[in-house]
Amino acid sequence: MAQMLTIPEVVNLLRVPETTIRRWIQQGEFPCTIRNGKPLINQATLISWAEAKHLRLGSSALGKKGNLVSDNLLAALELGGTHYGLKGEDREAVLRHIPEQMQLNKISPQKLETLLLERENQSSTALGKGVAVPHPRYPLPISKSQSRVDVFFLSSPIEWDAPDGQPVHTLFLLLSAESSHHLKILSQIAGLLRQAGVEDFLQQAPPQDELLDYIQARTSL
Length: 221
Known about the structure:
By secondary structure, the protein is α/β, with parallel strands linked by helices. The chain has nine helices and eight strands.
């Protein structure tokens, strides 16, 4: 008999927020059946769907719950948050203001500020098209479930020594517990920026729901 999973079980396996799963279901992006008013997901179908969406399966292929790790930008964004009107007259000032809006259990605002400034002093984290991806140089002492991406829209564009010379108006703050997660998310952000129209969209500082829908439509999540 096919094993059916509840949404909480899927959340545990995929390591993505329940709000993401329910939004995927509402948009017809996630396979499920409704029984007695509750959505259930076939485990075998979930494995195939996750592989098609480039979600990394655990070595036991769901033999043990919790072994499926999600490495996708959309989930990381929902674990983080969207922040507006970040102020600062230069890069350092902007980075110093970021920790004031963050709440991390194992890292103090002062420590996060130091880590971000140290990485930025090493080389610019600007990718071009008005976007930078500030991040600590090394993985953080946090759990995998706390790895996240927060979007910050600046109150005014700031020079960031970008490769294309454009000032930065949007930050994707990347906090990861593992180097592999960091590299995968960074690659997806870079891929997003290669698509036409992304820069104009981000310059509008869209509401969080619109931002998530836009990114979901343009990435294979």
